[in-house]
Amino acid sequence: MRSSHRTSSRGSPAAPLASAVAIAAAIAVVGVAYGSTASAAGLPPWLVILAAALVLSASSELVFIGVIASGGLLWVAVCAGLLVNLRNVVYGFSASGFLPHQRAPRLFSTHLVNDESVAFAMAQPHPTRRLTAFHTVGVAILIAWPLGAAIGVLVGYVLPDPSRLGLDAAFPAVFVAILLGSVTRRTAVPAAAGATLAAAATPFVAAGVAPILGLVGLLTAARRRGHRA
């Protein structure tokens, strides 16, 4: 992402297409892990691919499938996925300033709102280029994520045990990367509190409940802000 912020000698930002391709390639790899794991968990192939295209939220879908694959309850998986996807509300506020005003284009654009598309758009130095950057990355992800999921489903058909490829390692790798990129001095205590609570509750609660309980760590952040105020 940082390399895409460099400018040419004329001061114009680098074309977003190369960055979009790189982001889409990474998303597709994770999509393969999602598709193979979802297929191994017993979900119909058509549902796996359709969900990838309609939900278009890798992290929430990974959480949902992770809970289902570990034997968790359906309602727990749904709640976990929705909680993770709440961050798109914040992204929506950030993107509202450059999304088109016409109803149909705006509805399509809201479907493309995610971590990568909004972050890449907001990083553009010229506001007039944000919509183009947003659509370029968003459409690339719209293609790459379902495509990766479809390949993952095919991998599940070819290999009786997709775990031999080590694709299951993509789940903890993705979340560790998100965690390391998000934790700062101010958020370290809430993150540690949530992780400790989730780890302690894991042996005693149904699969998938522990991560939800870990969100209690947010109360630590709110309490610390209240004390400072």
Task: Please explain how this structure is put together.
The chain is mainly alpha-helical and 229 residues long. Helix content is 71%, strand content 0%. The chain contains 12 helices and no strands. The chain has helices at 16-40, 45-55, 58-69, 74-85, 87-95, 103-111, 115-122, 130-158, 170-182, 185-201, 209-214, 217-228. It starts with 15 loop residues before the first helix and ends with a helix. The model is unreliable at 1-14 (pLDDT under 50).
Layout of secondary structure:
Layout lengths: L15 H25 L4 H11 L2 H12 L4 H12 L1 H9 L7 H9 L3 H8 L7 H29 L11 H13 L2 H17 L7 H6 L2 H12 L1
Short characterization:
With 229 residues, the protein is mostly helical.
Defining traits:
229 residues, mainly alpha, 2 domains, disordered N terminus
The biggest sheet, with number of strands, parallel, antiparallel or mixed sense and barrel status, is:
none
Head-to-tail CA distance between termini: 35 Å
Whole-number tally of structural domains: 2
Report the C-alpha radius of gyration, rounded.
19 Å
Estimate the helix proportion, in percent. Answer: over 70%
Low-confidence stretches: 1-14
Overall strand count: 0
Strand content of the residues, in percent?
under 5%
Order of helices and strands: HHHHHHHHHHHH
Structural class determined from secondary elements: mainly alpha
